[in-house]
Amino acid sequence: MDQSIDFYTKKLGLRLLDQAHHEGNADMAFVGRDWDSYIELVYDLEEHPPYELGNRYEHLALEVDGDLEQVCKRLADQGVKILKGPKKSPSGTRSIAFVEDPNGIPVELLEPKRASAGGS
Fold it and tell me: Which of 44, 70, 81, 106 is 20 to 30 Å from 55 by CA-CA measure?
């Protein structure tokens, strides 16, 4: 849990929104910009069958502040594993990259979405 909190707060720039705590069968922490959009980190203390292909989420996606290439360089310098990119998204509208969190979960980083010329 400490490694995950460190990754999402110190490396990706989110805030710890509430003190990490133990609740029944799990350790929990909430990270995000605010309570309108956050990630719940859960360390499950119960026995479960191992994860298999297709029985869990594939990845998280977060929009970053600033230049994605510079963000990836900073993360690599901090020892974060860069899985892919930065490169243009399949639609070609913005750059994306993938990094790995301490638990091996891919995190997609996206450059900020720009408003279209039509104003929407």
Answer: 81
List 18's β-bridge partners, or say none.
Answer: 30
pLDDT tens profile 43-102:
877 887 776 666 666 778 899 988 999 999 999 999 999 999 899 887 788 899 999 999
Decide if 108 is catalytic. Answer: yes
Distance CA 15, CA 75 (A): 17
Q: Give me the residue label for tokens 């298999």.
A: 52
Complete domains list, the chain, with CATH: 1-48 (no CATH), 55-120 (3.10.180.10)
* Active-site residue, selected from the candidate residues 40, 46, 47, 108: 108
